[in-house]
C-alpha cells in the first residue's frame, strides 16, 4: 500500500493507528487505492466545498485560484460566514459538480 501511495510504510502505519492524518496532497491517491470516497459531502455548500477540496487534494489557496477569488473568501464560504452570490455560486457549482 505504501508503495502504491508513494509514501513510507511508517506513514501508512501512523494513518492506520490515527497518530496522524493524511495531508491533502495524499487524498487523491488514497481514494484511488480505496476505489471509493469515504468523504460525506453532505448537502450544504460549505460541506460540499470542503469535501471537494479534500477529494481533489486542493488547499483553500489552490481552490481560490481555480474559482478566481481570494483565499479568505473560500475560508468564509467553508465556515458558512457568507456564501457565494449568484455568478460565483454558479462557478462553484460548475466546478464541484455532483460529489456523490
Properties at a glance:
100 residues, mainly alpha, 434 Repressor (Amino-terminal Domain), 2 domains, 60% helix
Number of helices: 7
At the first level of CATH, the class of the largest domain is Mainly Alpha
What is the second-level CATH architecture of the largest domain? Orthogonal Bundle
- Following the backbone from N to C, one meets helices and strands in this order, namely HHHHHHH
* Biggest β-sheet strands, sense, barrel: none
Distance between the termini: 25 Å
Instruction: Give the amount of beta strand, in percent.
Output: under 5%
Total DSSP E strands: 0
Helix content: 55-70%
**Average pLDDT over all residues:** 89
Molecular structure report:
Helix content is 60%, strand content 0%. The chain is mostly helical. It folds into 2 domains: 2-34, no CATH class; 45-96, 434 Repressor (Amino-terminal Domain) (Orthogonal Bundle). Helix 5 (60-67) packs across helix 6. The longest helix is centred in the middle third of the chain and has 12 residues, at 45-56. It is elongated. The two termini are 25 Å apart. The model has no long low-confidence stretch (mean pLDDT 89).
Offer a quick outline of the entry.
Helix content is about 60%, strand content about 0%. By secondary structure, it is an all-alpha fold. It has two domains: about 1-35, no CATH class; about 45-95, 434 Repressor (Amino-terminal Domain), CATH 1.10.260.
Annotate the secondary structure layout.
Elements: H1 2-5, H2 9-16, H3 27-34, H4 45-56, H5 60-67, H6 71-79, H7 86-96
Helix pairs in contact: 5-6
